Amino acid sequence: MTEMTAAPDTPEAITSMSVLAFFAADHVAASDSKLYVNGGFFTLLRFPVFPATLPTLGVGVALKIPFQDTMRDHLLRIGLRGPDHQDLPVNIEARFHTSPTPEAEFGEETVLPFGVTISNIDIPAPGAYQLVLWLDGKQVGTYRMRAAQVPMMVTGIPPIPRDFD
Along the 165 residues of the chain, how does pLDDT read in single tens digits? Predict the structure, then answer.
């Protein structure tokens, strides 16, 4: 069986880095060219009161890097915007340089996973939040999450005894 592939729409589609995945999770780590994800792709944060603190925020990114972009320095940056489009104090930066692996074929693209987990993120108010991804100074992706106020669940209270006489 022959694999069918569509022709790219533009030359840039095969000559520029592209984002294969960009998402939020409870925890993300990258190792051995893989992403390890717990609680991935959530879009709703629930808090009983605001301001609130998100205990952990994992961010996963997978980039497709064309052959001609290997052996060059690049900058990946991730930020968080609040409901009023304000930049929040979350700023992750990573400089990276890729090279073909010994087993890569000439001209083969590279898939680069990037994962990070940060702690104690301040969520000031209910509303829409966006993770923002920049590559080499250009915004290339956003991931939307919404923070909502929900009633606090009371647990650990024993049931009221009933008299069945």
Answer: 444 555 556 665 556 889 999 999 999 999 988 999 999 999 999 999 999 999 999 999 999 999 888 889 999 999 999 999 999 999 999 999 888 878 888 888 889 999 999 999 999 999 999 999 999 999 999 999 999 999 876 666 666 666 655
SS3 state at 46: strand
Judge whether 154 lies within some domain: no
Residue 164 lies in a domain: no
Number of domains comprising the chain = 1
Strands of the chain (E only): list them.
18-25, 27-31, 34-38, 44-47, 52-65, 73-81, 87-97, 110-123, 127-135, 138-149
pTM of the shown model:
0.81
CA dist., res. 59 & res. 49, Å (int) = 24
Sign (positive or negative) of CA dihedral 98, 102, 106, 112: negative
134/118 Cα distance (integer angstroms): 18
Q: Is residue 36 part of a domain?
A: yes
Q: Give the H/E segment covering residue 82.
A: none
What are 73's two structure tokens?
């320095």
